[in-house]
């Protein structure tokens, strides 16, 4: 009887393993596939991510609202489900968990689970916009609709927006948070934009040595991001065509030879 029970137990384990494998493959296809159902799923996930980021932007001024904790924990549940599903679908979960944007999501999840204990780190939540940008999820619609040329410009815009609200959140949390509400958040945003653009009206300044150092960092990084944005706008359009010899990815649309190694190129016309 024991001998018959063991094969039955083994068959049960094999069936369970097969079901888990099929579920992982199915989930992986939803997150990374190109079928109609997969594209719909990815678009739905992206819309949810954008709604979450909107909450992150305005969470400093919503913190005193009675419904804040409910929304905060709901977002935490959604983010935890997304991270768990992506980890389950990954071919190598341990390697996937070590990726920078995954670690960042875990930090953001911690600030959602402990919103008042980790209030000083809440400004890091907006970095999820950068995380989504780096993972490539944000740019799939552009690539799918044939607007890949806009990706570099869109990335520069996203980097600038992320930094603006990251700096705003830090300035608000550190210098304007106590009893200021919406007015304090707007002051922090106004100061950040004035610093990034080097306008320097001087009507709002940060007190003390830390305030001066914060202003210097915001101005230096902000100028760099503005330069990147200007380059993306005014730089001549490039096409993605890897050189078969040296692997250089981007070339001028009418390039005949690779500018890095001189390899003869056969870049197809846009209409091909």
Task: Give a quick precis of the structure.
With 272 residues, the protein is mainly alpha-helical. Helices cover 67% and strands 1% of the residues. It starts with a helix and ends in a 21-residue tail after the last strand.
Report what the structure shows.
It comes from Aurantimonas manganoxydans (strain ATCC BAA-1229 / DSM 21871 / SI85-9A1). Keywords: Ion channel, Ion transport, Membrane, Potassium, Potassium channel, Potassium transport, Transmembrane, Transmembrane helix, Transport. Its main location: membrane. Residues 161-233 form the Potassium channel domain. The protein has 272 residues and is mostly helical. The protein contains ten helices and two strands. It has a two-stranded antiparallel sheet with strand order 1-2. α1 crosses α2 (36-62) and α8 (151-176) packs across α9.
Keywords:
272 residues; mainly alpha; Helix Hairpins; two-stranded antiparallel sheet; 10 helices; 67% helix; transmembrane helix; Putative ion channel transport protein; ion channel; ion transport
Number of distinct beta strands: 2
Low confidence ranges:
none
Question: Which percent range fits the helix content?
Answer: 55-70%
Order of helices and strands: HHHHHHHHHHEE
CATH class of one domain: Mainly Alpha
Number of H- or I-type helical stretches? 10
Percentage beta strand: under 5%
**Average of the residue pLDDT scores:** 79
Q: In the CATH scheme, what's the topology name of one domain?
A: Helix Hairpins
Q: What gross morphology would you assign?
A: flat
Give the second-level CATH assignment, the architecture of one domain. Orthogonal Bundle
Structural class: mainly alpha
Q: What composes the largest sheet?
A: 2 strands, antiparallel
Q: In order across it, which strands form the biggest sheet? A: 1-2
| Straight-line distance between termini | 69 Å
Rg calculated over all Cα atoms = 24 Å
């Amino acid at each position: 009887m024991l001998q018959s029970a063991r094969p039955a137990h083994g068959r049960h384990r094999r069936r369970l393993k097969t079901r888990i494998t099929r579920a992982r493959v199915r989930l992986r296809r939803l997150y990374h596939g190109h079928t109609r159902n997969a594209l719909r799923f990815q678009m739905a996930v992206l819309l949810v991510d954008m709604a979450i980021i909107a909450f992150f932007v305005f969470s400093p001024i919503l913190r005193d609202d009675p419904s804040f904790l409910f929304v905060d924990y709901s977002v935490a549940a959604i983010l935890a489900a997304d991270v768990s599903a992506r980890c389950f679908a990954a071919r190598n979960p341990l390697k996937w968990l070590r990726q920078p944007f995954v670690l960042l999501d875990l930090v953001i999840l911690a600030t959602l689970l402990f919103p008042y204990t980790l209030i000083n780190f809440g400004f890091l939540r907006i970095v999820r916009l950068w995380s989504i940008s780096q993972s490539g999820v944000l740019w799939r619609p552009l690539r799918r609709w044939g607007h890949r040329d806009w990706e570099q410009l869109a990335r520069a815009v996203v980097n600038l927006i992320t930094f603006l609200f990251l700096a705003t959140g830090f300035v608000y949390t550190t210098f304007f948070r106590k009893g200021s509400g919406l007015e304090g958040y707007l002051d922090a945003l106004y100061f950040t934009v004035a610093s990034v653009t080097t306008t320097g009206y001087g009507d709002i300044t940060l007190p003390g040595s830390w305030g001066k150092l914060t202003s210097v960092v915001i101005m230096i990084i902000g100028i760099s991001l503005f330069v990147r944005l200007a380059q993306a706008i005014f730089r001549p359009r490039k096409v993605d065509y890897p050189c078969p010899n040296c692997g250089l990815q981007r070339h001028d649309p009418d390039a005949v030879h690779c500018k890095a190694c001189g390899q003869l190129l056969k870049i197809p016309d846009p209409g091909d």
